Amino acid sequence: MPPLALFFRCGLFIIIPFRIFLIPVLYSDEATEELNAFIAGHRVAHIERKWIDQGAQSAYVFCVEYVLASPTRDGNPRSQLSRNQIDYKTILSPDEFTIFSLLRELRKELSQQQGVPVFALFSNEQLAQMVQRRCASKADLLGIEGIGEAKVEKYSEKLLATLSKFKSPPPSSELP
């Protein structure tokens, strides 16, 4: 059983497993490979890095918090994650995907400005629905599941400005 950290977030106690890695200044290749292999094989939630200044014995210490995932048949926990992802490039038309990408960039900028994760603002599914429905008003945005008055008031101006970059109207078969 890995060591566990107990956090209190959003009114809930969350238990997150973690692993500590020490990467010395001298002869760090093996330790670096071990850290990289661990990160590649796990769904990482957070990494914290600290410099320990001890002269020739100096090192970086990494605390890697990760999510326990049940391994798939091939033994790689990441395979299961990638199977559940949607490739919006195949679902959306080229014009729609261009606007979808712009919305994702806007979401990233907004999340960085506010210090919140991107998924706390809008999911990829919500962004895709904005594009597919050709949202042009606050009422259109409110018609998407999971988007309420507060988000519409806070973000509609920038979202609608990005969505207005469409060059063609939606095909009649795509109208809700």
Q: Mind telling me the CATH class of the largest domain?
A: Mainly Alpha
CATH fold field value of the largest domain: DNA polymerase, domain 1
β-strand amount? 15-25%
Number of helices: 8
Spatial extent as radius of gyration: 22 Å
- Low-confidence parts lasting 5 or more residues at pLDDT below 50? 77-83
Strand order of the largest sheet: 1-2-4-3
Q: Order of SSEs, N→C?
A: EEHEEHHHHHHH
What is the SS-derived class? Answer: alpha+beta
What's the shape? elongated
Annotated CATH architecture of the largest domain: Orthogonal Bundle
Q: Tally the beta strands.
A: 4
Q: Major sheet: size, sense and barrel closure?
A: 4 strands, antiparallel
**C-alpha termini separation:** 50 Å
Structure explained in plain terms:
By secondary structure, this protein is of the alpha+beta class. The chain has helices spanning 29-40, 77-83, 88-91, 94-114, 118-121, 124-132, 138-142, 149-163; strands at 4-9, 12-24, 43-52, 59-67. Strands 1-2-4-3 form a 4-stranded antiparallel sheet. β1 (4-9) and β2 form a beta hairpin. α4 packs across α6 (124-132) and α4 (94-114) crosses α8. The chain starts with a strand and ends in a 13-residue tail after the last helix.
